[in-house]
Amino acid sequence: MTAERVKVGFIGGGAISELHSRGYPDNPTGELYAVADLEPGLARERANQWGAQKAYTDYRELLADPQIDAVEILLPHHLHLPVTLEALAAGKHVSLQKPMAISMDEGRQIAAAAASSDRVFRVFENYRTYEPYMRARSMIEAGEIGNPVSIRIKSIFGKGKGGRPMSDREMEWREDPARGGPAWMILDYGFHITSIITYFMGPVETVHAMADTSAGTDRFPGAPAVISWKHRDSERYGNWDMLTLPEFMVRTSYYPVDEWLEVTGTRGVIWVTHCTADLLGQPPVVMYRDGEMRSYSDMETDWGDSFRLGAHAFTGAIVDGTQPELDGEEAVHALAFAVGAIKSAVEGREVKLREL
Ligand SMILES: NC(=O)c1ccc[n+]([C@@H]2O[C@H](COP(=O)([O-])OP(=O)(O)OC[C@H]3O[C@@H](n4cnc5c(N)ncnc54)[C@H](O)[C@@H]3O)[C@@H](O)[C@H]2O)c1
């Protein structure tokens, strides 16, 4: 790769593309070169807004553009498989928005295509480039709390105080199982959680979930839910509870959801108190060890900044020839964890991920 920056095309100019566009104005290794969206006029409007040179209504024309090195796929979930396969076949590096896919079969097809390609492929899950999570993980890896043995996560979906609600258009395809997949709160939103759990604690072996009484019907959103699991080859356990509370005001600049987590180790505990929103208003990372509490605030807590860092990580990895976070194999694992939780809730039994 020369000193020239990687030319990136966005496929999909919907809600999330605004946050992805933050990845390019100060990106030393990548530039946003083109946008494709089938809605007439939208790609041109986005391209003008972000200074991208080209706009397409047909993403296949973007893939045929030899100037473009890499794509960020920002499409409804049922399009993740076909567009990823076409993009890799066209010789583009691929960053695919989470969730990887809507079934294990689709996820495995994507991972197999990525593994047999010489292009960079990653699933983009922005919590992995959220600074408080990165800081907490490096503290855990440095042994600050001893051997991590348990993780606990809380998610509350409410009504935004600030930020913006999801539009009917964004909800319509998510709630359709053919386009959004089953139980979107666990498969789609939950992919963030299953990704970040494996990021902190390693792979999962067994999952058990209890969820609302519509489990198994087409109307099953997947929340409220209580999900617990055991990690593979270790005495490590975890649990996650997720609530939907329409009257609960969530102080946010983005989506009306917040989450916080706690990792307990053999010598101490680390809490990460910020993520999508700022419900608790506490220092982002707090540690208890040896009878003392310590707070860490010297980091960016704006969730939107994780999209900027995530784009830099993608184009930087293309230039360096390295693998960014969440390759195909690890993404299939995060998908299996979510799919396993849904299966457990529907069938009322513990599910071993190797069954899937
Ligand atoms: N990381 C996060 O926190 C986060 C948040 C929201 C969405 N997402 C992910 O981003 C992706 C898109 O979600 P969204 O909320 O932006 O949805 P959206 O409905 O706002 O946007 C989807 C866009 O894709 C376009 N589109 C649909 N079919 C197309 C086609 N064949 N060719 C070209 N364009 C097409 C639509 O016109 C629309 O503009 C999903 O995978 C979702 O999971 C991630």
CATH class of the largest domain: Alpha Beta
Supply the CATH superfamily name of the largest domain. Dihydrodipicolinate Reductase, domain 2
Distance between the first and last residues' Cα = 40 Å
| Domains (count) | 2
Give the overall form: globular
User: What's the order of the H and E elements?
Assistant: EHEHEHEHEHEHEHHHEEEEEEEHHE
Main sheet properties: 9 strands, mixed
| Architecture per CATH nomenclature, i.e. the level-2 architecture of the largest domain | 2-Layer Sandwich
Summarize the entry for a quick read.
This protein has 11 helices and 15 strands. It is α/β, with parallel strands linked by helices and 356 residues long. Nicotinamide-adenine-dinucleotide binds next to α7.
Care to describe what's here?
The chain is an alpha/beta fold and 356 residues long. The chain folds into 2 domains: 6-125 and 307-322, Rossmann fold (3-Layer(aba) Sandwich); 128-302 and 335-355, Dihydrodipicolinate Reductase, domain 2 (2-Layer Sandwich). The protein is built from 11 helices and 15 strands. The strands form 2 sheets. The protein has a 9-stranded mixed beta sheet with strand order 14-13-12-11-7-10-9-8-15, covered by helices on one side. Strands 3-2-1-4-5-6 form a 6-stranded parallel beta sheet. The chain is globular and about 55 Å long. The two termini are 40 Å apart. The relative contact order is 0.17. The model has no long low-confidence stretch (mean pLDDT 96). The structure holds nicotinamide-adenine-dinucleotide. Nicotinamide-adenine-dinucleotide (NAD) is lined by residues 11-16, 36-39, 42, 59, 74-77, 79, 97-98, 126, 169-170, 188. The site of nicotinamide-adenine-dinucleotide has 23 residues, from helix 7.
